[in-house]
Amino acid sequence: MLIIDKMLASGIKFVLGKVAAAVDAELNDDARLREELLAAQMRLELGEITQEEFAGFERDVLARMREIRERQRSGDEPGAEKPGELKVVGVEATANFEQE
């Protein structure tokens, strides 16, 4: 039973690691942000949003893109610890299966 518990914990740790990597890649992908900006520009041209709404969205997206590029230029890891920030470094899981 101990082997199964260790395998289950290892499997959960593996899956959570993959999820964290996917989330990190998604949050630090400026190509996705460019696509969002192009989509917003199309919505503006179609009259779905106003110029003011587009300007606000554009400002936010460009600020996020600058943050990503600055982080990449400085060599900081996306998940690198900074003063005042918390970082999850691992996951510990235990399971207790009682048999009757």
Structural summary, described in words:
The structure is a single chain. By secondary structure, the protein is an all-alpha fold. 66% of the residues lie in helices and 0% in strands. It has helices at residues 2-27, 30-45, 51-74. Helix 2 (30-45) packs antiparallel against helix 3 (51-74). The protein is elongated. The chain starts with a helix and ends in a 26-residue tail after the last helix.
Structure at a glance:
The chain has 100 residues and is mostly helical. It is built from 3 helices and no strands.
- Strand proportion, as a percent range, falls in under 5%
Total number of strands: 0
Helix content: 55-70%
First and last CA, distance = 14 Å
In this structure, how is the largest beta sheet organized?
A: none
In DSSP terms, counting alpha (H) and pi (I) runs of 4 or more, how many helices?
3
Poorly predicted runs? none
Question: What's the Cα radius of gyration?
Answer: 21 Å
Structural class: mainly alpha
Element order, helices and strands? HHH
Question: Overall mean pLDDT score?
Answer: 78
Shape: elongated
